[in-house]
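User: Could you go from structure to sequence for me? I need the amino acid at each position, not a summary. Structure tokens:
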């Protein structure tokens, strides 16, 4: 028998009100609340809490509070990742961020999505698609990354962009919808 979590992580329709998912979501909210309340001078406590909250938390990861996520355990941050103030990660599917990548303030990563047809949305089940951001990327303030997007290594995304489709490595891309402006 396939659990709702397994369905969620495999991109199938799933029921978010499933007791296991509700408990995981509540846990993430509690841990994120605690993280956001830790004194800025207590980096050891912050690091310990991130290791408890996230699926993977590499060395030298730094997140400026406030930080919000759906589950935490589906978020994987490699070494040296930096998330500025107010980042939101809806990690209903796996969200992976490569080493040395920096996210500006209020960057939002949305792996969660819903059926397009209203009649299907009313039924309740949701969908999720993974997000992958390569190493040494920079996403400017207010960038939104939509479900299922992959951003290649060493790419810069301009502030305020809405990334609706994959972006290759080694480029500067910007806009709504985000498009490649030039190679770097």
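Assistant: Here is the amino acid at each position, in order:
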């Amino acid at each position: 028998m396939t659990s709702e979590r397994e369905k969620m992580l495999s991109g199938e329709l799933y029921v978010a009100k499933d007791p296991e998912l509700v408990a995981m979501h509540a846990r993430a909210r509690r841990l994120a609340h605690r993280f956001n309340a830790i004194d800025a001078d207590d980096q050891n406590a912050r690091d310990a809490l991130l290791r408890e909250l996230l699926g993977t938390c590499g060395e030298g990861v730094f997140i400026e509070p406030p930080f919000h996520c759906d589950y935490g355990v589906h978020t994987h941050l490699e070494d040296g990742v930096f998330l500025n103030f107010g980042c939101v990660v809806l990690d209903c599917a796996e969200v992976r961020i490569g080493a040395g990548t920096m996210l500006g303030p209020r960057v939002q990563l949305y792996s969660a999505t819903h059926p397009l047809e209203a009649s299907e949305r009313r039924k309740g089940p949701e969908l999720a698609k993974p997000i992958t951001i390569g190493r040494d990327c920079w996403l400017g303030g207010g960038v939104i990354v939509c479900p299922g997007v992959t951003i290649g290594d060493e790419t810069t995304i301009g502030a305020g962009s809405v990334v609706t489709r994959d972006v290759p490595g080694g480029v500067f891309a910007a806009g709504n919808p985000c498009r490649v402006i030039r190679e770097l």
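One structural detail worth keeping in mind: The two ends are 48 Å apart (CA to CA).
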